[in-house]
Specification:
alpha/beta; Trp Operon Repressor, Chain A; five-stranded parallel β-sheet; three-stranded mixed β-sheet; 7 helices; 10 strands; 31% helix; elongated
């Protein structure tokens, strides 16, 4: 039996992660014992007044910068307890999160995620403590908490047993660099709008062909970049 996955998230705003990490698939996976997710408040590793973890940047730029000391202390304590496969920093200039990356990360045992905040983090953190930087899009957010939750969600849902129907995860958009085909449910007709007849035919070979045609058509129309 494979080792249970563990995800440690380091943040200055732990309350921002309360809801995303404790509902739906993420909560069920934790309840089933498939994954442990631990959130660590970096202020607990501060030795300054008022538990401050930021300071002014050298060079006179505007904004505040996350200090290396509390980050280092927290990471060293966690690393003393276990080995980490990846230490991830959520950064707008990191590698773009995609489905193949999520698939790869879902096979790991121990993952640490540092959430950026303020103007940024002392660059020595990125130079010496981080093994991988990941972005969820070409835009800037207030902090790295939402990207950390997105990364965790994209990983955990792929753990065997996290989703009731594991085949459903394999058919999701982006698994084959294709968008998912349209899906429908009852009633078969509503307000004059009908479900495609092929889906009601019971001919699963034709249904599979239709789904592939639709996936290719939607991908060409909406995300042609995926087919390159």
């Amino acid at each position: 039996m494979s080792q249970k996955m563990r995800i440690d998230i380091l943040t200055v705003m732990p309350e921002a992660l309360d809801s995303p990490l404790h509902c739906s698939i993420l909560q069920r996976a934790q309840d089933k014992g498939l994954v442990e997710i631990h959130v660590h408040n970096l202020r607990d590793w501060s030795t300054r007044n008022h538990r401050k973890v930021d300071d002014y940047p050298f060079g006179g730029e505007a904004g505040m910068v996350m200090q290396i000391e509390p980050v280092y202390r927290c990471m060293e304590q966690l690393k003393a307890e276990r080995d980490y496969d990846e230490v991830i920093f959520t950064s707008p200039d990191g590698d773009m999160l995609d489905q193949p990356m999520a698939n790869s990360l879902s096979l790991l045992n121990n993952i640490m995620i540092l959430c950026g905040h303020y103007k940024g983090v002392d660059y020595r953190i990125r130079e010496h403590l981080i093994t991988r930087e990941i972005s969820i899009g070409n835009y800037v957010l207030t902090g790295g908490e939402l990207p950390a939750a997105v990364i965790a969600d994209s990983i955990v849902r792929l753990i065997p047993g996290a989703i009731g129907d594991e085949q459903s995860a394999l058919n999701d958009s982006f698994q084959d660099n294709l968008l998912e085909a349209p899906v429908y449910t009852r009633p078969a007709e509503f307000n004059g709008w009908r479900v495609p007849d092929v889906l009601l035919s019971g001919n699963f070979a034709k249904i599979d062909d239709w789904k592939m045609e639709q996936a290719l058509e939607r991908t060409r129309r909406l995300r042609p970049d995926l087919l390159k």
